[in-house]
């Protein structure tokens, strides 16, 4: 008798920000290390800030999907839970896991699931903890990507949603990624402001 | 300026079973160890099985409440999330934490929160993990109570909802509580069957 893990897709919300894209990549990697068979995808193309982040860490943008039930029976959600922010045909698949830092609303399942929410500044902060809890090493590239997501969501640890957990994790990820978080963070946030480089040079 | 932790109530579902009562006691204890100010309460009186469990471990039954907004601004839920299983005036308070092993339905918050659900046999299995993650020692009495909740929810690890996590945790808690889980478990489940002792003696 043969057993195999059914493939699952992992994705963040529509109109993805850096956390939505990066948390899908990082959580999919973690789940695969733990024996699951997952692929990170996105519900839209990366914005300018996220493009900068992906290029900086030489990471391909996840495949964009607009429906999931045609290819999988189950999915994992990151950085969102509300139905209207998710894939259109989500009611046709099982949600097996959620990792998020938002309020819970318009979210219903018919079966028990893994749900991990914490009131912190960024989903990637929680995913960093999950790597530790599962004793999986964080690869340098994933550390850089998650660092970028926290910088984005917390505006370089300045937003009112920033917690001590976010600050601690930023320090740790910066070390793993060999990045100066402040210098890189300013570049990253500037990339998201959509200012034309030529005119901004003055 | 003085800071103090506002008191929060911790409770399981209406018509409480052993897990609903015990998970409130155990999670409240853990949260208080971590600096919160919580009191475990119940949305109903203990059933016969739970009475046996509380008596066995010399634990007082939690105070029964039918509303919460008159005494606190925030609450933590265990072993349930659906509004119709919860306290009547829950929409008048903030839910700050949930630990549960059921599907999510009829649950909405206006703010981010801590939500920990896992598809395991018992809430007390998850709370045991939370003690470990937070490096808080499980007192002998709380170990015995949580063991009883897992025995109850999984019918002594025989229910189809039983997972490897539940089995591992039962072993660990039995050791801490100095209990023979099988022998004690049969007694506990028998106490819940409401059979009159005299007639059952034959
Ligand atoms: Mn986001
Ligand atoms: Mn986010
Ligand atoms: Mn219950
Ligand atoms: Mn339960």
Features of this protein?
disordered C terminus, alpha/beta, 202 residues, binds manganese (II) ion, 13% strand
Describe the structure.
The structure is a homodimer of 202-residue chains. In chain A, strands 3-2-1-4-5-6 form a 6-stranded parallel beta sheet. Chain A contains 7 helices and 6 strands. Chain A is an alpha/beta fold and 202 residues long. In chain A, helix 4 packs antiparallel against helix 5. Chain A has helices at 18-33, 48-56, 123-133, 140-154, 164-177, 181-191, 197-200, and strands at 8-11, 38-42, 63-64, 74-78, 94-100, 114-117. Strand 6 (114-117) of chain A pairs antiparallel with strand 6 (114-117) of chain B, so a sheet runs across the interface. The complex binds manganese (II) ion (4 copies). One manganese (II) ion binds next to helix 1 of chain A. Chains A, B: It is an enzyme of class 3 (hydrolase). Chains A, B: It comes from Loigolactobacillus rennini DSM 20253. Chains A, B: Keywords: Hydrolase, Manganese, Metal-binding. Chains A, B: It catalyses: diphosphate + H2O = 2 phosphate + H(+).
């Amino acid at each position: 008798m043969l057993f195999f893990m059914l493939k699952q897709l992992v994705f963040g919300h529509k109109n993805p920000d850096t956390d939505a894209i990066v948390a899908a990549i990082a959580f999919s990697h973690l789940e695969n290390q733990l024996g699951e068979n997952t692929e990170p995808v996105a519900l839209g193309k990366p914005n300018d800030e996220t493009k900068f982040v992906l290029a900086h860490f030489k990471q391909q943008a996840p495949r964009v999907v607009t429906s999931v039930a045609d290819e999988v029976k189950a999915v994992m959600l990151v950085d969102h839970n509300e139905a209207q922010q998710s894939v259109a045909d989500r009611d046709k698949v099982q949600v097996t896991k959620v990792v998020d830092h938002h309020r819970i609303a318009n979210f219903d399942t018919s079966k028990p699931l893994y749900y991990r929410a914490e009131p912190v500044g960024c989903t990637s902060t929680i995913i960093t903890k999950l790597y530790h809890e599962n004793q999986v090493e964080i690869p340098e590239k994933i550390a850089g990507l998650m660092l970028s997501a926290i910088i984005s969501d917390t505006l370089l640890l300045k937003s009112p949603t920033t917690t001590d957990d976010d600050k601690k994790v930023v320090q740790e990820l910066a070390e793993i990624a060999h990045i100066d978080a402040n210098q890189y963070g300013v570049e990253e946030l500037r990339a998201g402001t959509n200012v034309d480089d030529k005119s901004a040079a003055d």
